[in-house]
Design brief:
OB fold (Dihydrolipoamide Acetyltransferase, E2P)
C-alpha cells in the first residue's frame, strides 16, 4: 500500500501518463504516529520504540541519513494498516533538534508533481508526463506547455549542516547519469532542469556535496553551464504532509 494519497486524474498514457493535478491537492499521509528511534540494523529497517514496545519498521529511504536517525530522536511513522506486510509501519520523518525532516524518498516527486501546475514556472496549463523515457534516460517528468518541451529530474535533499543543505549523501552514479542525460537533451533543444526538493526548512543555501561525490558536483556545474537550469526549493513539513514552498539559493564551491 502506497503511503502517499493524492487525487489525480489520469488520461490516456503516451510514454508516461498525462496528469491533471488540482491546485488544492496536498501530499498527505492519512495515518501517522510518533515513536522513539532506537537503531537501524540495515538500510531497509529500523527499530523504534512505540507505545512501550520495540517495533521493527520499514525505512522509506535507503540513503544513510546518519545525521538524522540518531538514537533517541522522535520519529514519525506511517501506519500502513496492512496485515499482509512484514512491517506495519514506515519511518517517514524524524526531528533533528527542532527541525522536522521528511526522509521518504517517494515524497519529493509527489510533492513536486503537485507544485508543477501552481508554480508559475511551467506555464498556465502544463501537461505532465511522469517517468518519461528519452534516449537512454528516464526522467522524472516531461512537461509540455505550448511550444515548451521540458524535462525535469527531481532529487530529494535530506542532508543539512548549519542551515546549508547538500546532495548527495552517498555516491550516486545514477544521479550523474541523469545529469548527463539532461545535458544531452539540452543539446537536442529541450528545456531541462535539475530540481532539488529540500525536505525541510529553513535553509541558507544549497550546494553539491563535493566531499561525498565530487563527480556529481562537477557534472552539475558542467551541465548548468551548458544550459540545464537548477531549481532548489524547501518544503513545509508536518508529521502528515510535505509541500514545496520557497526557493533556496544555490552555490558551487
Amino acid at each position: 500500500m502506497d503511503s502517499l494519497f493524492i487525487t489525480i486524474e489520469w488520461n490516456a498514457p503516451n510514454n508516461g501518463a498525462r496528469v491533471n493535478v488540482q491546485d488544492e491537492l496536498e501530499m498527505r499521509y492519512d495515518r501517522v504516529t510518533t515513536g522513539t528511534f532506537i537503531s537501524r540494523p540495515n538500510r531497509f529497517i529500523a527499530k523504534v520504540e512505540l507505545d512501550g514496545r520495540l517495533e521493527t519498521v520499514h525505512v522509506k529511504n535507503t540513503g544513510r541519513c546518519r545525521e538524522i536517525l540518531q538514537p533517541g530522536v522522535t520519529a514519525i511513522l506511517y501506519d500502513s494498516d496492512n496485515p499482509d506486510r512484514k512491517t506495519r509501519y514506515d519511518l517517514i520523518a524524524a526531528y533533528k533538534g527542532d527541525m522536522l525532516i521528511n526522509i521518504d524518498s517517494q515524497a519529493p516527486n509527489k510533492a513536486f508533481q503537485e507544485f508543477i501546475p501552481v508554480s508559475g514556472l511551467f506555464g498556465d496549463d502544463p501537461i505532465i508526463h511522469p517517468e518519461y523515457t528519452h534516449g537512454d534516460s528516464r526522467f522524472d517528468f516531461y512537461i509540455e506547455d505550448g511550444d515548451r518541451k521540458i524535462f525535469v529530474e527531481v532529487k530529494g535533499v535530506t542532508l543539512e549542516h548549519d542551515g546549508i543543505c547538500s546532495f548527495p549523501d552517498a555516491p550516486t552514479e545514477r544521479g550523474v547519469k541523469h545529469l548527463r542525460g539532461l545535458g544531452k537533451a539540452v543539446e537536442e533543444g529541450y528545456e531541462c532542469y535539475a530540481a532539488f526538493v529540500v525536505q525541510m526548512k529553513p535553509m541558507k543555501y544549497f550546494t553539491p556535496n563535493y566531499e561525498t561525490h565530487e563527480e556529481f558536483g562537477k557534472v552539475l556545474e558542467e551541465v548548468h553551464r551548458a544550459g540545464v537550469g537548477i531549481l532548489v526549493y524547501d518544503c513545509l513539513v508536518t508529521p502528515d504532509s510535505m509541500t514545496v514552498d520557497s526557493p533556496v539559493p544555490f552555490r558551487f564551491r
